[in-house]
Specification:
Length: 326
């Protein structure tokens, strides 16, 4: 029997993650019982206190127990949290010593979506890979530079320390864990019951590149704005360094530090984002869009597009363009 501890954080948290995790493991028990097999999971909601937590001003979650009452667990699930992360981390910091102690005693730990911020605050992710919602990627990198954030991934498994990508992709991590704890057949059954596509590992096609401008480096911002206004043109690194009056080595270092991208990567992502929008809603063919965003080599365009989105341009259009789907 696996003991599952689903945290009930203070502050703003995702009710869907708490409810989804609870339902996943309890429903797995029900399916096992229908097959005349013993249940595999004991599931509890765990808080810092027994006080009810109210989420979205409407929904009340009552912890079954507090961390003081659980001496041994097998899996800790950290749901997504919302709001100003420094404050969210601070009001939930009493969880961290307990999580570390349980992990030292053999417990596995899983963060769902933005719950990665709480997991990283325990120190357990230092030097390890982690996923989170793409919308929080820039803040996560700034707060936890010693964690290897793989923003394109839906699931990471670092020897029993798990994380999931954004929003409802937490279901893919739950299916992954259920397959590990029970078997493949149960994971497939659960995927069919909840109508979740199984074996999704990449969230690149969902990422909306918005540029990283939450920094105070004005020459870098100037270069970013120039790239975003002139992306169809052939822009060189030398042209940008001359425009901002910095030496190339210093400018490249500052650009990477401010945006988490090299200058060339940033230019590619701006071009690909423009191409994605054209594929989503327009009628132009792939080659027309390729030239429109500044590429002349179709192989290079398709290679960068797939590296960025995880899909070929045709696959992307078929996925998101209403007329293509019809």
């Amino acid at each position: 029997m696996k003991h599952i501890s689903i945290l009930v954080p203070k502050g703003a948290a995702s009710l869907a993650c708490i409810d989804g995790a609870y339902n996943a493991f309890t429903k797995a028990n029900q399916f096992l019982e229908r097959m005349a097999k013993p249940p595999k999971f004991t599931v509890q909601l765990v808080g810092l206190t027994k006080d009810d937590q109210v989420y979205d001003r409407l929904f009340t979650v009552h912890p079954d127990v507090t961390i003081k009452n659980i001496f041994k667990t097998d899996l800790i699930i950290i749901p997504a949290v919302n709001g100003e992360m420094e404050k969210v981390i601070d009001i939930n910091k009493e969880f961290f010593p307990w999580i570390n102690k349980q992990h030292a005693n053999g417990a596995e730990v899983a963060s769902l979506c933005m719950g990665a911020f709480l997991l990283a605050s325990t120190g357990l992710l230092k030097g390890k890979k982690c996923a989170t919602h793409w919308l929080g990627a820039n803040d996560f990198r700034k707060m936890f530079p010693d964690v290897d954030l793989v923003s394109e991934k839906i699931i990471t498994d670092e020897q029993g320390i798990y994380s999931s990508g954004g929003a409802t992709s937490f279901w893919n991590l739950l299916l992954y864990i259920i397959e590990k704890y029970v078997d493949r057949d149960m994971a497939i059954t659960m995927s069919k019951y909840f109508e979740i596509e199984i074996d999704r590992y990449n969230q690149s096609s969902f990422i909306i590149f918005q540029g990283q401008k939450e920094h105070e480096d004005q020459p870098v911002k100037q270069a970013q704005e120039f790239i975003e206004k002139n992306y169809p043109d052939k822009i060189t690194v030398e042209q940008l360094t001359s425009m901002v009056a910095l030496c190339r080595r210093n400018f490249e270092r500052r650009f990477k530090k401010a945006t988490s991208n090299t200058i060339v990567e940033y230019m590619q992502r701006v071009k690909i984002e423009a191409a994605k929008k054209g594929l989503e809603s327009g009628r132009k063919n792939v080659n027309e869009l390729m030239y429109e965003v500044g590429y002349s080599d179709s192989k290079a365009f398709r290679t960068v597009f797939k590296k960025t989105t995880g899909l070929s341009p045709i696959e992307y259009r078929n996925k998101y363009n209403k007329e293509a789907v019809a």
